[in-house]
């Protein structure tokens, strides 16, 4: 709504109207000119110039932001803009002319007007923008605009009340008693009898269906309570045993034989604990293995070496904290010949059986007596007894695997994949023998050789030694499955054990039933040391703390301990730990403690502590390098 008004045209029209009315006066008297004092002098061109003014509908005098403040919103911040409410936008509309066309007129203005406002006394219509209408119209009253008066209110604080209650103290009673093994056993018997009586009562009251359902409920409740009960009973049993045999624990930790100072480098073995299992009565100790993570825990394989007395086997785990009862017991249908515990995953235990099977037990699954992995006839199990198993490093796919050797001449690698064992033949031991035919000619025939023991190199993963039944030792590699790297004419009878040295990468030791123990260098064909023990040797083991100390057991019940650094001709200790009629089968050194464990044919495991003369650590001698004579002595401690 814009209008352009020509000011000059309006002035000319007004001039013509005034000339028509007062024209006759101009001729008579002349028109008087009244000129204001502050009138601007304009030229003729400036008077002829047309000035255009544009009129818009917006009211320039209308306020743009009117703020009203509310006490309801915020009483404390009245003058804050956030607490106010803005009015409706101001209307920029003024009516210049209105006319009613019906009985119910609709005014153009937003607020209704009265007759007095529309028509004055003379009957003339007032304009909305006139001065009279502005003075007569009442403006809306703003609520408390800048006329603020402070008001305060005070609330009453509720008084605090104290409430208390008093109870009688619980009754106290002084109890004192001693607990021993017999009382613990009697408590278990009474608890079992009470459980049996409850079961008999429930059988007579309810029907068979109800009885069967309640049996399941009872079994579930018992199974839920048994883990907590067994844990508490195990802790209590350890406390009772340690209190009862406290003198043995003190000897294990603190006692040192003072007589070693007067024995001229000789030593002794101090008997500590003796371990046994009632379920393994009549069985022999066929395997021993320490746990590398929990150094007080060791595994014992139970079976028999007598071919005519084969039967079931038992896998037992003992701990030095409790010698009266094993920690874990697993029964097997065949005799256990060998055991090995994984170094990183100490809950995985590989086992070899007399019937040719290999299996893996998981100690975390205590409720299950069966192995988690076991070989079958379809999956390439051995056909003869398995004499040795060894865990290997994980393969490229991250699968755990171990190797086994058997009398059938096969060395097999077993890989744990999902729920089955996948086998891979590493090597098959065989010897070519010439056989004469009927016509008198010779014929070459390949004959399988029985393997009795093997051991993998400590640094080179693919290199390993194999002991055979014919008394030979073969150095083999996984990369050459059809070829032997080297053979040694070691013994006259079967090689019972062959083991690499823990510190020297080129030295290994072997023992046999021909009464000898031999120390070898893998680069030589003849042994470095030969020791005759005057009895068949059952097992030999290197010490984990010294490269020159090893121990062996013989079938006459004697333990032999050697230290090549002190004496290269005879043992520092020869001590009988069982009766002469009992045969010792295996021996193992503890990884950190100065003790050894010895197993016999009766199923007992005896722990022995080495005296100070038997566990001396050799001094580290520097190697002289002629090219760098000074640096070779500086980099090694004397």
Describe the protein's topology:
Blueprint: H1 7-21, H2 23-28, H3 44-48, E1 67-69, E2 84-86, H4 115-118, H5 131-136, H6 181-205, H7 208-244, H8 246-254, E3 269-275, E4 284-290, E5 297-303, E6 313-319, E7 328-332, E8 336-341, E9 348-353, E10 358-362, E11 373-374, E12 386-392, E13 401-406, E14 410-417, E15 420-428, E16 430-436, E17 442-448, E18 451-456, E19 463-468, E20 472-477, E21 486-489, E22 495-500, E23 507-512, E24 516-521, E25 529-532, E26 537-542, E27 549-554, E28 558-563, E29 573-576, E30 584-589, E31 595-600, E32 605-610, H9 629-634
Antiparallel strand pairs: 1-2, 3-32, 4-5, 5-6, 6-7, 8-9, 9-10, 10-11, 12-13, 13-14, 14-15, 16-17, 18-19, 19-20, 20-21, 22-23, 23-24, 24-25, 26-27, 27-28, 28-29, 30-31, 31-32
Helix pairs in contact: 6-7
How large is the share of residues in beta strands?
A: 25-35%
Distance linking N and C termini: 111 Å
Largest sheet: 4 strands, antiparallel
Helix content range: 10-25%
Low-confidence parts, pLDDT < 50 over ≥5 residues?
Answer: 1-12, 78-86, 104-126, 622-638
By helix and strand content, what is the structural category?
Answer: alpha+beta
What count of helical segments does DSSP give?
9
The general outline is elongated
**Rg calculated over all Cα atoms:** 55 Å
- What does the average pLDDT come to? 79
Number of strands: 32
Strand order of the largest sheet: 3-32-31-30
GO molecular function: dynein heavy chain binding; dynein light chain binding
Family: Belongs to the dynein intermediate chain family.
Region (Disordered): 98-141
Keywords: Cell projection, Cytoplasm, Cytoskeleton, Dynein, Microtubule, Motor protein, Repeat, WD repeat
């Amino acid at each position: 709504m814009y209008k352009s008004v020509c000011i000059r045209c309006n002035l000319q029209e007004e001039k013509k109207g005034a000339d028509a009315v007062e024209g006759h006066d101009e001729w008579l008297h002349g028109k008087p000119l009244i000129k204001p004092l502050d009138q601007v002098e304009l030229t003729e061109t400036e008077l002829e110039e047309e000035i255009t003014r544009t009129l818009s509908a917006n009211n320039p005098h209308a306020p743009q932001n009117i703020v009203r403040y509310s006490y309801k919103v915020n009483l404390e911040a009245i003058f804050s803009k956030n607490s106010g409410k803005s009015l409706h936008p101001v209307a920029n509309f003024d009516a210049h002319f209105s006319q009613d066309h019906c009985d119910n007129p609709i005014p153009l203005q937003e607020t209704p007007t009265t007759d007095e406002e529309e028509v004055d006394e003379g009957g003339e219509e007032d304009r909305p923008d006139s001065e009279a209408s502005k003075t007569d119209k009442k403006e809306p009253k703003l609520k408390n605009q800048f006329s603020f008066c402070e008001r305060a209110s005070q609330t009453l604080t509720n008084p605090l009340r104290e409430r208390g209650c008093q109870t009688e103290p619980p009754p106290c009673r002084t109890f004192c008693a001693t607990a021993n093994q017999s009382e613990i056993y009697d408590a278990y018997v009474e608890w079992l009898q009470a459980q049996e009586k409850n079961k008999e009562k429930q059988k007579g009251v309810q029907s068979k269906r109800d009885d069967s359902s309640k049996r399941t409920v009872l079994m579930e409740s018992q199974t839920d309570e048994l883990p907590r009960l067994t844990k508490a009973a195990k802790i209590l049993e350890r406390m009772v045993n340690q209190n009862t045999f406290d003198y043995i624990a003190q000897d294990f930790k603190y006692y040192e034989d003072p007589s070693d100072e007067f024995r001229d480098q000789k030593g002794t073995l101090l008997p500590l604990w003796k371990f046994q299992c009632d379920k393994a009565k009549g069985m022999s100790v066929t395997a021993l293995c320490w746990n590398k993570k929990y150094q007080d825990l060791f595994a014992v394989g139970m079976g028999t070496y007598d071919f005519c007395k084969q039967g079931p086997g038992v896998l037992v785990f003992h701990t030095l904290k409790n010698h009266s009862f094993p920690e874990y017991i697993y029964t097997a249908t065949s005799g256990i010949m060998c055991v090995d515990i994984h170094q990183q995953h100490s809950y995985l235990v590989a086992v070899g059986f007399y019937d040719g099977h290999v299996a893996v037990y998981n100690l975390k699954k205590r409720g299950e007596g069966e192995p988690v992995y076991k070989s079958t006839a379809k999956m390439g199990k051995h056909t003869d007894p398995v004499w040795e198993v060894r865990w290997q490093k994980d393969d490229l796919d991250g699968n755990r695997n171990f190797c086994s050797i058997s009398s059938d001449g096969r060395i097999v690698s077993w890989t744990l994949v999902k729920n089955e064992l996948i086998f891979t033949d590493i090597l098959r031991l065989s010897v070519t023998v010439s056989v004469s035919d009927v016509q008198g000619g010779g014929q070459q025939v390949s004959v399988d050789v029985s393997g009795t023991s093997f051991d993998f190199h400590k640094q080179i993963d693919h290199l390993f030694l194999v002991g055979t039944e014919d008394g030979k030792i073969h150095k083999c590699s996984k990369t050459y499955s059809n070829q032997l790297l080297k053979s040694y004419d070691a013994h006259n009878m079967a090689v019972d054990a062959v083991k690499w040295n823990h510190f020297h990468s080129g030295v290994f030791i072997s023992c046999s039933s021909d009464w000898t123990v031999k120390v070898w260098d893998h680069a030589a064909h003849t042994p470095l040391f030969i020791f005759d023990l005057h009895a068949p040797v059952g097992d030999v083991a290197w010490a984990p703390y010294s490269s020159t100390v090893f121990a062996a057991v013989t079938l006459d019940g004697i333990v032999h301990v050697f230290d090549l650094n002190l004496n290269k001709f005879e043992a520092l200790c020869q001590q009988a730990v069982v009766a002469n009629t009992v045969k010792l089968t295996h021996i193992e050194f503890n990884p950190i403690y100065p003790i050894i464990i010895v197993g016999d044919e009766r199923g007992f495991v005896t722990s022995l502590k080495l005296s100070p003369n038997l566990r001396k650590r050799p001094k580290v001698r520097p190697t002289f390098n002629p090219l760098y004579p000074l640096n070779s002595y500086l980099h090694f401690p004397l």
